[in-house]
Amino acid sequence: MLKIIVATTTLIPSALLIKPKILHQTLTSYAFILALFSLTLLKQNTYLKPMSNMYLNSDPISAPLLTLSYWLLPLMMIASQYAMRTEPVQRQRAFLMTAALLQTTISLTFMATNLTLMYIMFEATLIPTLILITRWGQQSERLTAGTYFIMYTLTTSMPLLMAVLFLNNMSYSPTPFFTPTQSTDPWTNLLLWLACLTAFLAKMPIYGLHLWLPKAHVEAPIAGSMVLAAILLKLGGYGIIRMMQIMPTMKTDMLMPLLILSLWGAVLANLTCLQQTDLKSLIAYSSISHMGLVMAAITIQTPWALAGAMALMIAHGFTSSTMFCLANTTYERTHTRILMLTRGFHNILPMMTAWWLTANLMNIAFPPSMNFTGELLIMSSLFNWCPGTMILLGLSMLITATYSLHMFLSTQAGKLSPNLSTNPTHTREHLLMTMHIAPLLLISMKPELVL
């Protein structure tokens, strides 16, 4: 654990010391080496591994998410190269330093074995993300987006802090993740659950606490959008799975309102996607609907549902990141994200159209992709728990297919806008898409790595 954490932390001073000419190349190759190191986390035998470290450890829940975050670090750097090339060297260094700091805090959150450390690191991820959104964001509203982001996350994480302190007082030591809390008064239990879940629900985000997400996505630079969609939303799901291990046992009926809200929220978010005119905003709302399914699966707490939630979180991490990269390649050429103005691209960039089609099929959860595995597990476990959920799930799937095809057709088909001068696609962009989609297809051939 420590060797990866130390190596990630040393990326921060490296961003300040490397010569300007080789800054991007060197840091990206370092990040790729770290990504390869992190692949070893997927194949550890938890039964044979001793608890070598009382603060940091990884298990089958955190390892896939850790590997995903390390895999996306070099891709963030590659995706930002075009935007960064016109910036002064100091700002380039600051950007790469912020990305490395964000990666360090994210990996510490996933590796933490006690609640207090996880809470501190969970909050620490806010600072680099906020810097990314407000310093390298694209439009004048980026400060508003940053304010939304901070207000939502901080307001909801105050109750979590209270709950962490309460749990620590009950156990007279920092609560580790494998000692379930003894049950107390039923009302205390309910308040504990609410306090712990709210912070993670706002981070996922569940429909109703989601207003910060489209704003943050639209204003963030490409690296910010990638890390927000692919990793920071998963911190919410991961936190809830972790919390359920140590919380006093609760009947699923008590969590029924949450389950209904997450399924209904998924349908509403999908409907919102249909009326979006902004490409980035559309992809952001699609993330909310997928996270609704993950939340519904985690709530019923069966092994199948949890496996489905993990699979969908990993698959969605790759898919949404790919879609943001594609939206960014279009934006770099047209300088607009309005769907009406970015049509007809398949006439001039046919290879990009192939990537768009692949990403949209993944988003619809087309077999044999990992998204399909995740959604199938979630659907079967929800149907087994209550057949009535099928109505909302079916509706959600139907609308997902509709808006994905609408997005594909409105960006690729039709006549080109006049006065559009575009550059051909670069090898860098094709490499970026390959590095997103290849792991997704490879994992779908061996899904037990992440289940």
N-C termini distance: 21 Å
Number of helices: 19
H/E topology pattern: HHHHHHHHHHHHHHHHHHH
The total beta strand count reads 0
Features:
mainly alpha; 19 helices; globular
Précis, in short:
The protein has 451 residues and is mainly alpha-helical. The longest helix has 32 residues, at 303-334. It has a domain at 255-451.
Describe the structure.
The chain is mostly helical and 451 residues long. Helix content is 72%, strand content 0%. The chain has a domain at 255-451. The chain is built from 19 helices and no strands. Helix 15 (303-334) packs antiparallel against helix 19 (427-445). The longest helix has 32 residues, at 303-334.
Please specify the SSE layout and strand pairing.
Blueprint: H1 2-9, H2 11-17, H3 23-38, H4 62-79, H5 81-84, H6 89-111, H7 115-124, H8 126-136, H9 142-171, H10 186-203, H11 212-219, H12 222-246, H13 256-274, H14 279-300, H15 303-334, H16 350-364, H17 370-385, H18 389-412, H19 427-445
Helix pairs in contact: 2-6, 3-4, 4-6, 4-12, 4-15, 4-19, 6-7, 6-8, 6-12, 7-9, 8-9, 9-10, 9-11, 10-12, 11-14, 12-14, 12-15, 13-14, 13-18, 14-15, 14-17, 14-18, 15-16, 15-17, 15-19, 16-18
